Amino acid sequence: MNVTITVDAAKKLGPLKPIWRFFGADEPNYAYMKDGKKLLKELGKLGKPQVYFRAHSLLCTGDGTPALKWGSTNAYTEDAQGNPVYDWTIVDRIFDAYLKNGVRPYVQIGFMPKALSVKPEPYQHAWTPKAKYDEIYTGWAYPPKDWDKWGELVYQWTAHCVKKYGKAEVESWWWEVWNEANIGYWRGTPEEFRRLHTVAIAAVRRALPTARVGGSDVAGDGGQFQRDFFTHCLKTGSPLDFVSFHAKGAPTFVDGHVRMGIAAQLRTIDAGFKIIASYPELKDKPIVIGESDPDGCAACQGPQLGYRNSTMFSSYTAAVFARKHELADRHGVNLTGALTWAFTFENQPLFAGFRQLATGGLPLPVLNVFRMLGKMDGERLATQSSAGLTLDAMMRDGVRSASPDIAAQAALAGKKAWVLVWHYHDDELPGPDAEIALTLENLPKARGAAKLTHWRIDETHSNVFTAWQKLGSPATPTPAQYAQLEAASTLEQLAPPASITIEAGRVTLPFTLPRRGVSLLQLEWR
């Protein structure tokens, strides 16, 4: 199919905010393990500004041994007389791993230490992907038996961070309380959660008055729970430097193939923005979509989740991130971050079907989308595509008709322009290649030579999964095979950089883009 895409370099839409630069995981202890450290290093390389990481269970009781949907630090215990005992050894090790690799904490304050929980037993769950999801909600999910001790724990932790890392460093972090308190992650009442939040945030600010604090990181748009939370904070004066909620897609498995649910994620973002925009006091606050993903459970497995190793995940990510910018524009809100809840799972089989950025130390195709996004900078530019779906159509129907979504996002900074182009469809079925005619017009350079660099993610480029399959899917690759896979996991150029000619501020770039492919084209001139 023939597709024309036009980028107007004279029509600027505002700054291209690096909303992609947030990541997270259920399992905090993976951060300092072998593959975790390797992946953190890759995240830290993604580009400026700073990459942030959010993790559950930073205050859970235990020896730091990770498991699926579980982690612990033993930060708080009590002696025989009930006096607090603080131990920051493991949580420091987690934050040290972030900072050493160029990543900063998006600090989730939680969950409840065993010695503070009103219902401490059972405490650590033993969840597996075959278990029922609600089996994870054990003693860590309950309110504190002593609110003063809860507040003092948060104060001592914050004060320790300021002492260890310095005031300026900790001021750059984000601090929020708990996770998805409107569902099973919180076993108290909404009123008790608001108290949990208020006490914790007051403790953070007591230790560091300039700390950046917010919330509530609800599941979905949060509905009335989120509204009641905002009303409480505004009424009581509990500070909100930023606001947050979560948005997930809804993939299914139909007729033997994966069908993504991009519409569900976009509708949730739309609803979340609408709630925030309805509060004049909050409309200009930075928004972080604290978990923003194609599905709801990174550690789950199943046929409907079969998109994760493939270019379904990477093309979905390119398409949905561009629409997040559009939704923020529509509501006039300050979207600052959209956090991808994906990291890696240590000591698991290669390509085991978890939602992750890398497997066994090997970056998956989706990480290469973030490498592409990390190259872009400057002002967003207006784009038009003959095969791009409208935002309203995608929110209503997803991408499920005969026509795919073939569209672009573009940016301009100084003497460089970038165009990110994707070829996406909700259904993981074969489809024809797109013959793209990409035109950039009204460029700052009227005429002359420019350098074109073209990066690509598809079945044969920047794709460690298909490289592994071609090797026969070895469970334990040899050193030579692993080296091949590492090479295949990098962001690859489609062809060597080329010199092209700009005439009258305009250039047309033809190329072929297969189904589920993503291209980044960079144009640079003197």
Description of the molecule:
- Helices cover 29% and strands 27% of the residues.
- The two termini are 35 Å apart.
- The longest helix is centred in the middle third of the chain and has 21 residues, at 311-331.
- The mean pLDDT is 97.
- Helix 3 (147-165) runs parallel beside helix 5 (190-207).
- It is globular.
- It has two domains: 2-10 and 379-524, Glycosyl hydrolase domain, family 39 (Immunoglobulin-like); 17-375, Alpha-Beta Barrel (TIM Barrel).
- Strand 10 and strand 11 (257-259) form a beta hairpin.
- The chain has twelve helices and 24 strands.
- One of its GO terms (molecular function) is xylan 1,4-beta-xylosidase activity.
Strands, count: 24
Number of helices: 12
Helix content: 25-40%
How much strand?
25-35%
Radius of gyration: 23 Å
Shape, principal axes of CA atoms? globular
**CATH superfamily caption of the largest domain:** Glycosidases
Question: Biggest β-sheet: count, sense, barrel?
Answer: 10 strands, mixed
Summarize the SSE layout with pairings.
Blueprint: E1 2-15, E2 22-25, H1 34-44, E3 51-55, E4 76-78, E5 84-86, H2 89-100, E6 103-109, H3 147-165, H4 167-171, E7 174-177, H5 190-207, E8 213-218, H6 223-236, E9 242-248, E10 252-254, E11 257-259, H7 262-277, E12 286-293, H8 311-331, E13 334-340, E14 358-359, E15 362-363, H9 365-375, E16 379-385, H10 391-397, E17 405-413, E18 416-424, E19 434-441, E20 448-457, H11 464-470, H12 479-488, E21 492-493, E22 498-502, E23 507-513, E24 518-524
Helix pairs in contact: 3-5, 7-8, 7-10, 8-9, 11-12
